[in-house]
Design a protein that fits this description.
The protein is an alpha+beta fold. Helices cover 27% and strands 31% of the residues. It has a five-stranded antiparallel beta sheet with strand order 1-2-3-4-5.
């Protein structure tokens, strides 16, 4: 008995293995890219550097620490109290605080007598990460030989 001739299947250009490999590659790419949208760079083990601060606002939203401003105020007081006014003349007196990174210049230092106490009035600039500010102050020599800041605040005008 003769069997009917087997009909040859038409040649298919679609290779099932090639299709699966392409699907797997596309799926892997989508999974990898979805990681980018949900924290991606951490998947590479790089992480985020939270130690760098680029502004003057603290993490809790508060203003810069008062101790920083106080430290600069004491540095300016020390510069004013130790200045030799005869040698300084009208030249600005530079100051810098290594603890805070602030710096500036003191100008218009004048020595005055306030109720028998020797005081020095001055204008000081302060350059810091917060910006540039201008302050007016007055430091006075106390009976114990220590200079104390009597007035210090933003300069008017």
């Amino acid at each position: 008995m003769l069997r009917p001739a087997q009909v040859a299947k038409p040649y298919s250009t679609r290779n099932p293995l090639r299709f699966r490999a392409g699907f797997v590659a596309l799926f892997a790419a989508l999974v990898w890219l979805s990681g980018c949208a949900s924290g991606g760079i951490d998947m590479l083990g790089v992480g985020t550097d939270n130690k760098v601060k680029t502004g003057s606002i603290a993490a809790d939203g508060s203003a810069p620490a008062a101790s920083e401003a106080w430290s600069d105020e004491m540095t300016i007081r020390n510069a004013v109290s130790s200045a030799n006014l005869a040698e300084l003349g009208d030249s600005p007196l530079a100051w810098a605080n290594a603890d805070t990174g602030s710096q500036g210049a003191v100008t218009q230092i004048t020595e005055i007598d306030v109720e028998g106490i020797r005081c020095r009035k001055f204008i000081a600039s302060r350059e810091s990460f917060e910006g540039v500010s201008l302050y007016a102050g007055e430091a006075c020599l106390q009976g114990n030989g220590i200079w104390q800041m009597r007035k210090f605040g933003p300069a008017e005008g």
